[in-house]
Amino acid sequence: MTTPFRLESVLVRTVAGNVTYAFPSALTVLAGSVGVGKSTLFELIKHALGGNALLAEVVRLSVLDVSVDIRIGSDHFLLTRSVDPASSSVVRVRDLTEQLDLEDRHTDKREPNLSSLLLSSMGVPDDMRAASKATNSTKQGARISFADIFKYMYVSQGDINREIASSEDSYYTPKRKAVFELLFGLTNPSILDFQSSVARVRGEYEDAVREHAVVFQFLVDAGAQSRFEAEVSQADAQAQIRESSIELERLREAIQPAIDRETRTLRDLLGEAETSLAEAAIAKSLTEQQQTDFAAERAQVRQDITRLERMASAGERLAQIEFSVCPRCMQSLKSREAPPELCRLCLQEDPLVGAELSEQTTYEIVHLREQELELATQVLTLTEELESTAKTLADRARLVEELSRAIQDRTRNRITPQLQAYTDATARLASAEGRSRELEQVMRFWDRADDFEAKASGLGAELNRLQDELNVRAAALAERRREVFDELDEEFSQNVAAIGVPGVRSTKVDRENYLPVLNDQPLKEFSPVGGVRTATQVAYWVTLLNVALRRRDTLFPGFLLIDSPRTSLNDNDELSAALYRRLVTAADAADGRVQLVIGDNELPATYRRDYAQMNFDYGHPTIATIPHPGRDAVKTIAGESV
């Protein structure tokens, strides 16, 4: 049966109070001039159901949250979602049947997800993916969400004369078609899963084939051996490694006994001699450093002696000078009288009167000369010690040389040939091991190529199996597919004729893209924009509803929200009346199993008695708690001025 879906009421909570609208009728029309808020209310409904809605400025500034009372299948929920971007990803859920608050749901990818709850109520799995049916598709497809199904329940003002369920978006086409098939039973979760698996395996198969080709081409370009040749060469290299290892072990055993007791004694003496030689070298270095230090100190003392001698000589010479004038002011000193013990120039005690200065200077000079003599003795002693150390060093060097020559003479004829053979065997082993590593790398590339080839072969077989199973399952629905499209064609033709879409001679629903075809032309080519496209859209949506209701074996929801169908009809009252007449007929024929909610700015007067109507104007907008700024300030939710 058609999935029951009913909007009971909408509650909009604003900064100035609450606004509530109930929808008890099978057909409800919101009537009012452009800009009174009909589209705003419809987008708020979409927002509350988790959709990515176009919210008007008045909503962003004045609305706090929106709640929708809905029935889906046997479930009855109250969904409340904030308008604030910071918290709008969370929807509060209340079960109105059990009168219980359920766990909050998320509108993004986080769990628990609102889409999963709504899909579950519709009896639709929430893990289905819409993969493309194209033979070259390698993507497993995006997950089908409630928002995708809602595209078949809500025709927005922006889409009413432009596209059907985002049909102009080529990227979205696989999902749109998958949802159509799911709703009409032309596919099922099992088939969708197979389609997704086919696309995924095809992608993996193509990746494996491409990777095998890349590795194989690398081996060819690198001039690598074939796998068979590489295996033979690897076996030869391993044999060479074994032979070289055996020969090296034999040589080790042959060399070991050649070092006899006397040779070991000579080696011990050589070690001691080398140690003594190193100690003598260190002693020589220290002695040289001490000699340098004492020589530098002796030179400093010699310099001090010279300085004192010059000072004494200068004092004696200056003492004989008798100043007749002051050397500073040039005044005469001849008439100045001074005691003999005082200097006539400065009137201070004359140091030359006694012999104290001369004795002190003589003492310092004598002391420094004694120190110089002592340092000279030290330097001489170190020089003699340095000569002795040099002789010892030379003796140790000769001893080391003699011991080394003796050891070499004893071992030349016994050890050298074996050492040469040992060196040759080591070189052969290293060469064989290097060759083996190169071949191992080549073998790894061949293994990788074989793995990719085996993987591609397995994936190819799996792809064929999945494709065959998919074909079998799709063939089982071929008859139903034919029946459904025959019914859609007939119903669509009747609706187009009843509405009186001008210029139409033939109609059908395309079997490939599921969109209207008029006079063997796609709708977008038959009528790019305008009233014909709008009227055709209404006929198409009514067709889907009527066929679903009549068959009673589909998942198509019995709900349709249409915004502004008269927008592009201009003054065509006849076409407008026929359009509403068809909507009323659809609602009546459904016998309560469908709910239609329509927003429009001008209605045919002859049919107002046939449906529930809510009237709005600039004095009484849909968000009644917020004063309307007036017609001149109106902007549509698309941002255009009226």
CATH superfamily of the domain at 5-132 and 142-188 and 477-633, by name, is P-loop containing nucleotide triphosphate hydrolases
**Radius of gyration, CA atoms, in whole angstroms:** 55 Å
C-alpha geometry: elongated
Structural class: alpha+beta
Relative strand content: 5-15%
CATH architecture verdict of the domain at 5-132 and 142-188 and 477-633: 3-Layer(aba) Sandwich
Q: Could you name the CATH topology of the domain at 5-132 and 142-188 and 477-633?
A: Rossmann fold
Explain the overall architecture.
The protein has a domain at 5-132 and 142-188 and 477-633: 3-Layer(aba) Sandwich (Rossmann fold), CATH 3.40.50. It has helices at residues 38-48, 57-62, 114-122, 146-150, 173-183, 189-221, 227-255, 261-319, 356-476, 478-499, 523-526, 531-551, 573-589, and strands at 5-14, 17-22, 27-32, 63-72, 75-82, 90-95, 100-101, 105-106, 129-130, 142-143, 154-155, 507-509, 516-518, 521-522, 559-563, 595-600, 612-616. The chain contains 13 helices and 17 strands.
Layout of helices and strands:
Layout (H helix, E strand, L loop, with lengths): L4 E10 L2 E6 L4 E6 L5 H11 L8 H6 E10 L2 E8 L7 E6 L4 E2 L3 E2 L7 H9 L6 E2 L11 E2 L2 H5 L3 E2 L17 H11 L5 H33 L5 H29 L5 H59 L36 H121 L1 H22 L7 E3 L6 E3 L2 E2 H4 L4 H21 L7 E5 L9 H17 L5 E6 L11 E5 L26
Helix pairs in contact: 6-9, 7-9, 8-9, 10-12, 12-13
